[in-house]
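Fold this complex.
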Amino acid sequence: MNIIFCLIIVLSTGILIFTKPDTVLQVISDSSLDCAKFLFTMIGVYAVWLGIMKIVENSGLSAKLAKALNPVIKFLFGEISDETKGYISLNMSSNILGLGNAATPMGIKAINSMNTNNCINKNMIMLMVLNSTGLQILPTTVISLRQTLGSSSPADIILPSLIATAISTVIAVLLCKLFVKDSSPRMGIPQ
Amino acid sequence: MNASVYIIPCIIIIVIVYSLIKRQKPYNDFVAGAADSISLVKGIYPYLIAIFFMVQIFRLSGLSELMSKAFSPILFIFGIPPELSELVLIRPFSGSGSLAILNEVYLLHGVDSYIGRCASVVMGSSETVFYVSAVYFSSLRGKGLVQGIAISLLANNIGAGIGCLLCRVM
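Structure:
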């Protein structure tokens, strides 16, 4: 991340020095304002979803969901605590339903509950990868944008999208299972 | 499309009714859960500002356009049309940024054109990988970050390529 960040900032700023140097100041104020707006929206939206999810948790609904998803979770993550299972099952079901704003806080809670020594372990990578391949039934944002722009059949991209996202999820899970290992000191193999 | 509008209202009703049946106090639970929001957002905020700044300077400087030209041969390997290279490049970084590019692609090539439908599939089947990784791993360290990002990007691009091929036949 450090390399990407430095490379993009230095190159972009370098170009701007020769083309339109005044833009840099504009970018600083614009991007920080955009980010602040976004954060305030998120404080609100996450609060509502965290509230709803707390109701789900305390009523025992999330435990039921976790039980139903247990085979999948067990295959993906192995043995994990019940608390983490609950968060992961809420995260996964929110993602599939297209509720990204409900999925993110649950994902962060799942990560925090798996955190033992502030190091990234393989289950965390699995969770992050599952969240970044975008498995969902309906790409609602795309469909509504197509509708606004007067598409004759805004929904005919659902099936190809679904197949594409299913394939990318399967590939990602396989790659994770194959290549991501916990770097534990018990293994005598030097890196 | 129409069915998706009912998902959220149904979930809310089911959740609250179930909680009442189980003799819980939904209001107290809701408030207790909502309290976590500010600390959650506070934790991810510095990472978000870095991404926002990076994406905006990347696009405004014209570097993203230059780089997407350089990247189009790589996209060709995955089977993604070169017209979509900027979309594919920005998509992992920013949801709002890639939505703006998607809009441009629609206006330029037409919503129902082959390119337009491919763009929809690329957008709809992938996620903001760097955003997700920054948010999830904000307080952690370790080499796993790079692995996770590499796997996600590779998988998303293979998926998108297959999606584009499907657009030809479907």
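The two ends of chain B are 19 Å apart (CA to CA).
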